Amino acid sequence: MGLFDKFKKNKFYDGFEEWLDEQFAKQKADAAVAFCFNLYEDSEHHWSVELVGTSRFSEQDTDWACAEVFAIREHPYVIYYEGTFREVLVIFKKCAAAYLDKGRYKDILKERAGVGIGFVDGDLELLYQNPNYCSSSEQF
Hints:
single chain, globular
């Protein structure tokens, strides 16, 4: 059993995959230049993730994630986890990386300029950058 197979059986990934498949089945993502998974600490060990599509992307300026063309806020994916925000970030990074590897709509994510992840009040990490999208550092 490979690393992905072990992780795919993880209860967090299964729910994440189902949630993201459902969102892409409902949401038109055509206007998005890039995507970002925004993480939130809710309350009492509940953590949420939402997906936003953005109108721009930049390796140097993480404010690109604020240029939203759509956001999936009404139906975030929520987990219960008694741990630190750093541990939760790792959980969601693994979920997103696994989805980028094997998810049903991975091509929608990977054909755009990039995919980021981070807590809304924290640093943004780049999970994926499309080397064929464009050679300039910023898209408008």
